[in-house]
Amino acid sequence: MKERFITGLDIGTAYIRVVTGQYNPQDGNFYIVGCGEVPSAGISKGVIVSIEDAVSAITAVLEQTERMIGSPIERVFAGISGVHIVTQESKGVITVSRANGEIREDDVERVIAAAQSVATPPNYDIVHVIPKDFSIDNQTGIKDPVAMTGIRLEVNTQIILGLSSQIKNITKAVYRTGVEIDDLVLAVLANAESVLSKRQKELGVALINIGESTTSVAVFEEGDLLTTSVLPLGSNHVTADIAIGLRTSLDVAEDIKLEYGHAVPEAVSKREEINLSDFSETEKETVSLKYISEIIEARMEEIFDMVDKELIAVDRSGLLPAGVVITGGGAQLPGIVEVAKNRFRLPASLGYPLNINTAIDKVNNLSFTTAIGLAYWGAEIMGNQSKSILSKLKLPSFRIKSIAELAAKGKKWIKSLMP
């Protein structure tokens, strides 16, 4: 087994999580050997608002993981999220340069680079350029054009962009902990690698990651990414609604949600009540659990309705055979699957990590799926190192060049500021 560790760093609003493992080239499996989890600091709605606090929190979780694996972490695959993430489609066109018209890997690189030259919004940088399909001389729907023959090569791509300042802030915060960034990955895409099967992506599926203050969505069909978005609502808004409805503090509301919360009022008896004094000495009121459940259901329906608007935008509302897969810390609420089935009119399930090889029970959890996905992403790159350029593209896509260049420039700039 190779000694090098592959590490995924999930920088979330509530927690920062790390998963570290090793890729075994003999059996092609990835083995998770360490993990860490600390409360976030300096992060709000998926973006960094205080570099110093974020550096302290990231350092703490890396040290926690290093103690578990008994080795220093030198490189990470870091996740990026936040409502600043936008997507757009782009097309690239080139002429095949060889006299015999045979398409080689460098032609694939050139046509994707042509798609990447699309005009981007001001102050935005490209995070991913994901090829969806190719066309050769008007023959459409080609997945791998290498070794085919033609004169005109086209590609349809999905381009994911992030605010330049936020990309630089994340790279700066990570570099200041003393580790390198192997790649910066959209968190929900990495998440999909840990919870979605190839068959689900082929049939058509929507992945919904419910975080502390944002909900990320990725829609797949025929193995391709159709759209992705980050919505400004999360599990913390459920807590806030309970606090308002019960006229109590956020801490009490969070404890009630975790201990008694249920998203389906019909599953809760009208007679069941709790005394708020059990959670705080200053509270004396008795409230109905059914009333709390109604508050939770209303907010979850609002979140799912916002997700359904994203499905409507790509004409997939109620039309995904593999349904919706819900993951993230906010997905642990009882009854959430039933609410999703009713709102989406589709099959729904919880997204637990797939094909997980580890003796650590803690990581087999909805909260760790993004960190696991980031580590899987790195393992996939290592597994594809000897394969064609397109096989590397289909999972990690062609964003490696642009992000690597950006990270290198950011690293030089940061080092120049250090005493």
TrEMBL record:
Keywords: Cell cycle, Cell division, Cell membrane, Membrane. One of its GO terms (biological process) is FtsZ-dependent cytokinesis. Residues 6-195 form the SHS2 domain. It is found in: Cell membrane. One of its GO terms (cellular component) is cytoplasmic side of plasma membrane. It holds the Pfam family FtsA. SUPFAM superfamilies: Actin-like ATPase domain. CDD domains: ASKHA_NBD_FtsA (cd24048). It is a peripheral membrane protein. Coiled coil: none annotated. Self-interacts. Interacts with FtsZ. Cell division protein that is involved in the assembly of the Z ring. May serve as a membrane anchor for the Z ring. Belongs to the FtsA/MreB family. This is Cell division protein FtsA.
